[in-house]
Amino acid sequence: MKAYWYDNIEGDQRLPHDSGRPVTPIDLTNLGIICHHYPSLDSVNDLASSRDYKNRDEVTISPTTLPNYEEKVKIFFHEHLHEDEEIRYILDGAGYFDVRSEGDDWIRLRLEKGDLAIMPAGIYHRFTTDEKNYTKAMRLFKDEPKWTPLQRGAETDENNFRKEYLKSRQEGTILSS
Ligand SMILES: CSCCC(=O)/C(O)=C/O
Ligand SMILES: [Fe+2]
After folding, report:
1. Which end of the chain is less enclosed by CB atoms within 10 A, N or C?
2. 175 in a structural domain
3. Three-state secondary-structure class, residue 13
């Protein structure tokens, strides 16, 4: 996993957009983000049990495998939040998660095969593949596999999960395990 400040230069979202300014693990911890590199599924299974995640699915984001690819890519890259923690494990290929910093700037996380990221409920973020247009990811869910993105707007700023997230960041109460 590599983390850096996004360069904000207009253009293809799939390009690295690396400003050259690195983001430290402490910056990520302060946002409530946890990253691991797990070469085998055993560690993923252990993490799933320890956080009581009962379900999972796999998604292959590429033009040939994902129905309505172009539409989905747009939805993934539209800034949103979830009311659940988001855990993603990259099984193959690579992709970028952009997450909002405390000052509302974009931080880009490049995840490759074996990388796992946990993003807290309420954090604003978006996702894109890289230029190879291929990300195979495992999505972990506590209960039924459901994926509900709430696009950023006045309503999500008032969302209780968003408010809880901001509160927890002030208090530093999200555990970084
Ligand atoms: C790489 S998993 C597909 C994208 C996704 O689940 C998500 O929540 C993007 O923000
Ligand atoms: Fe998401």
Report:
1. C
2. no
3. coil
